[in-house]
Amino acid sequence: MTVVASERIPTADPDMALGKEPPLLLGSTRTSPRPVEARTGARPLMSTTDHDHVIPLADAPGERTTWGRPKAIVYLWGVVELSLVTNPWQISSRLRVAALRLFGAEIADGVVFRPRTRVRFPWKLHVGANSWIGEGVWFHNQDHIHVGHDVVLSQETFLTTGSHAHRRDMALVTRPIWIEDGAWVTSRCMILGGARVGRSALVQPMSLVNSHIPAGAIAGGNPAELRGSRFGDEIA
User: Fold this and answer.
1) How far is CA 203 from CA 67, 125, 210, in A?
2) For residue 12, what pLDDT is reported?
3) How far lies 166's CA from each of 60, 159, 198, in Å?
4) CA 166 to chain centre
5) Nearest to 113 by CA among 144, 141, 87, 77
6) Is 191:209 a contact under the CB 8 Å cutoff?
7) Could you tell me the strand order of the sheet in which 177-179 lies?
8) Confidence label for 232 from pLDDT (cuts 50, 70 and 90)
9) What pLDDT score was predicted for residue 131?
10) Half-sphere exposure (CA, 13 Å, Cβ side) for 49?
11) pLDDT digits 0-9 by tens, 107-149
């Protein structure tokens, strides 16, 4: 006698909770499975109308509106950046800073710029005195990025001021970034447009910052949340 496994399964069954078919009993057969949505009552993740709507990128407003300099200057900067800023064989921080200043960056005295750094538009970069910019830091600054004095941006941190109007026409949307005096953004963090890292705050490795980190706070995670106080005092 052939036994057909019942489709009526207690909700406490772990396989059911994961949307899986229940295991077959020895010697049993299975009828054609129904869709997961029919068995669990869940709605499909996306309707056909959702994924049929495609924004034509050819019609999206161009990013050149954020360049802030003539095309020739932007292209020339690309050559200088590759040769003197991003180049891992170019080890002189002074030469790197000089190249950035030549193209309009506001960089105070005592700033250390390590190799493999990238700066989209130097004329939109502002760095205070005695700050350290670690190897591989990327300033994707279609809007202004303001870095205070005595700030540390550690290796591979990515700061991007741009996003897109994803519900409308994918037009470029930019907001500035502020890293206040004494802050430390540790390795491989991502700082998004509109974010502000407060005075002497510390951002833990591989965190995403998309809002305001209070002064003196330790923050981490994706998105970054408060984890404590850097100096043990009360967070403002």
Assistant:
1) 30, 21, 12
2) 44
3) 10, 20, 29
4) 16
5) 87
6) yes
7) 106-107, 125-127, 145-147, 177-179, 196-197, 212-213
8) confident
9) 98
10) 0
11) 999 999 999 999 999 999 999 999 999 999 999 999 999 999 9
What's the pLDDT band for 33 if we cut at 50, 70, 90?
low
Ramachandran area for residue 94 (φ above 0: left; ψ -120 to 50: alpha; else beta): alpha
Please report, to the nearest 10 degrees, the dihedral formed by the alpha carbons of residues 159, 162, 167, 170 taken in order.
-130
Task: Kindly list the distances between the CA atom of residue 65 and the CA atoms of 74, 115, 176, 235, in Å, as whole numbers in the listed order.
Answer: 12, 29, 15, 40
Helices (H) and strands (E) in the chain, counts: 5, 20
- 216-219 contacts: CB < 8 A, separation 24 or more? none
What Rg value do the Cα atoms of the chain yield, rounded? 26
Q: How open is the CA angle 233-234-235, to the nearest 5 degrees?
A: 115
Indicate the average pLDDT of the chain. Answer: 85
Half-sphere exposure of 118 (CA within 13 A, CB side): 14
Query: What's the rounded Cα separation, in Å, for the pair 127 and 105?
Result: 8
Are 190 and 221 a contacting pair, CB within 8 Å? no
Residue 36 has pLDDT above 70, yes or no: no
Alpha helix locations (H) across 18-119? 36-40, 48-52, 71-80, 93-102
Q: End-to-end alpha-carbon separation of the chain, Å?
A: 74
Phi, psi of 197 (to 5 degrees): -100, 120
